[in-house]
């Protein structure tokens, strides 16, 4: 009896340890929730119809990442036209793709090293490129991340927003400027008259593989007061209001989600959203203002809200 109880206890401990290990793995690798069609290919090792994938004809510069875990898999410079009906690459990012003999005994399957997602198959000896290799990958197994992306935020005087955004890792450039108005190429003096409809804003160019739009938007909400309706601190007027100009439906959805989260936390947020319009860079003396002046922003500082 004691021996049976000991075995049961050992089995329970083993199961508990495995559960903790799996939980740790899941925390370390954040998995995306997949649709039925995505599961068919990524989990069940299915194949999408040829010439149907959204990434087949994509020629933009950037990185192809695993749809399930987000790990970088392929670079745009290694993509080529093979006319096979699926995106083709003659090289992968080092250490990103695992090769395994396929169940059919004829082909070689390729999977994501990080999460095991099924990508497709690799073929050698076709002489289609100098590397003589073709990774035949399902579009649905991947997502494309452009080499750079942009975000536009307005949160009071652009000097302070620019200064604090520049300190975020992954941000490549921050430009102060004017947007959202009806006057073409306005000057600082014109915007200050409060008659052009423009707001002072910053245009951020960033590397999506190093920093996400969510991170930037959260930082935006923490470096200014989104609950002030008439400006920021002593800077009052319509050109200083809190506003997000989104470049895509994904950016809009993320901004709305963060606004809802802040309101659930009890913040009476006044920030509004609008589609991005033409952005006019401000005059040169307004760029990198605090870097040249050697001081800190007078009405912008980081306050933890998330």
What does this structure look like?
31% of the residues are buried. A hairpin with a 5-residue loop joins strand 6 (108-112) and strand 7. Residues 10-27 have low confidence and may be disordered. This protein is an alpha+beta fold and 306 residues long. The longest helix has 27 residues, at 2-28. It has helices at residues 2-28, 36-42, 158-165, 188-192, 213-223, 249-264, 289-293, and strands at 62-66, 72-75, 79-80, 88-89, 97-101, 108-112, 118-124, 133-137, 142-146, 149-155, 171-179, 199-206, 231-232, 235-236, 242-246, 272-275, 279-281. The chain is 26% helix and 26% strand.
List the main descriptive attributes of the protein structure presented here.
single chain; 306 residues; alpha+beta; six-stranded antiparallel beta sheet; 17 strands; elongated
How big is the Rg?
A: 25 Å
Largest sheet, if any?
Answer: 6 strands, antiparallel
Helical fraction:
25-40%
What general outline do the C-alpha atoms trace?
Answer: elongated
Distance between the termini: 54 Å
Question: H/E series, N to C?
Answer: HHEEEEEEEEEEHEHEHEEEHEEH
Share of residues in strands = 25-35%
Unreliable segments of 5+ consecutive residues: 10-27
Q: Please state the average pLDDT score.
A: 91
Assembly annotation: single chain
Structural class: alpha+beta
Widest beta sheet: strand line-up = 3-4-8-7-6-5
List how many beta strands DSSP finds.
17
Number of helices: 7
Topology readout:
Layout: H1 2-28, H2 36-42, E1 62-66, E2 72-75, E3 79-80, E4 88-89, E5 97-101, E6 108-112, E7 118-124, E8 133-137, E9 142-146, E10 149-155, H3 158-165, E11 171-179, H4 188-192, E12 199-206, H5 213-223, E13 231-232, E14 235-236, E15 242-246, H6 249-264, E16 272-275, E17 279-281, H7 289-293
Parallel strand pairs: 15-16
Antiparallel strand pairs: 1-2, 1-9, 3-4, 4-8, 5-6, 6-7, 7-8, 10-12, 10-15, 11-12, 11-17, 13-14
Helix pairs in contact: 3-5, 5-6
